[in-house]
Amino acid sequence: MTLPIGTTAPDFEAETTEGKIKFHDWIGNSWALLFSHPKDFTPVCTTELGALARLKPEFDKRGVKLIGLSVDPIDRHAKWAEDIKETQGAAPNYPLIGDTDFNVSKLYEMLPASTSGDPLTRTPADNQTVRNVFIIGPDKKIKLVLVYPMTTGRNFQEILRVIDSLQLTAKHRVATPADWTQGEDVIIAGSVSNDEAKTIYPQGWKEPKPYIRIVPQPK
């Protein structure tokens, strides 16, 4: 099991390709996307790191910092970055953690607490549970966890969509329906009474059922 939504993301110190960080300090007042991959020089992850590098401006617009993780050392990350740039057209433009002591992988319950030894002797199959996405808010709470199998590449457009929803619903007392995208109608949260809703939405709302109150996306 990975950490549940709503818990505080474990803090840690780690070496990265951009120097040593203390995770909570590094996040600061931003949002953060921590994503892990089981091994450097693996095919699916090569495409993912390149895709994320190309999409970084979209995450920047949303105030989301990106950080990757592998149990391999950072000198291998640097060599892998050359391959990523050559094959994907963009090298990682965000830090990658070298989790060689498995500390972060254990803190985030991606590897068993008993894991030890030389990370370079481990195969991708040994690390296949290190294939997670954590979205963390400025309050340092985990907002979303996704766990992918090794054979399925991550959909970063979906992750951007989720971030849009998380940021909107953190600011306004609304929820987003299935397949919602930026600019579409939303649902008034169940915690908002009808009397409160009349104050917040004096123009009213559509109500196909008493428990489904639909309004335009708040600005």
UniProtKB/TrEMBL annotation:
<keyword id="KW-0676">Redox-active center</keyword>
<dbReference type="InterPro" id="IPR019479">
    <property type="entry name" value="Peroxiredoxin_C"/>
</dbReference>
<protein>
    <submittedName>
        <fullName>1-Cys peroxiredoxin</fullName>
    </submittedName>
</protein>
<dbReference type="InterPro" id="IPR036249">
    <property type="entry name" value="Thioredoxin-like_sf"/>
</dbReference>
<feature type="domain" description="Thioredoxin">
    <location>
        <begin position="3"/>
        <end position="168"/>
    </location>
</feature>
<dbReference type="GO" id="GO:0045454">
    <property type="term" value="P:cell redox homeostasis"/>
</dbReference>
<feature type="active site" description="Cysteine sulfenic acid (-SOH) intermediate; for peroxidase activity">
    <location>
        <position position="45"/>
    </location>
</feature>
<dbReference type="InterPro" id="IPR024706">
    <property type="entry name" value="Peroxiredoxin_AhpC-typ"/>
</dbReference>
<comment type="similarity">
    <text>Belongs to the peroxiredoxin family. Prx6 subfamily.</text>
</comment>
<keyword id="KW-0560">Oxidoreductase</keyword>
<keyword id="KW-0049">Antioxidant</keyword>
<dbReference type="GO" id="GO:0005829">
    <property type="term" value="C:cytosol"/>
</dbReference>
<dbReference type="GO" id="GO:0051920">
    <property type="term" value="F:peroxiredoxin activity"/>
</dbReference>
<dbReference type="InterPro" id="IPR045020">
    <property type="entry name" value="PRX_1cys"/>
</dbReference>
<dbReference type="InterPro" id="IPR013766">
    <property type="entry name" value="Thioredoxin_domain"/>
</dbReference>
<dbReference type="InterPro" id="IPR000866">
    <property type="entry name" value="AhpC/TSA"/>
</dbReference>
<dbReference type="Pfam" id="PF00578">
    <property type="entry name" value="AhpC-TSA"/>
</dbReference>
<keyword id="KW-0575">Peroxidase</keyword>
<dbReference type="Pfam" id="PF10417">
    <property type="entry name" value="1-cysPrx_C"/>
</dbReference>
<comment type="similarity">
    <text>Belongs to the peroxiredoxin family. AhpC/Prx1 subfamily.</text>
</comment>
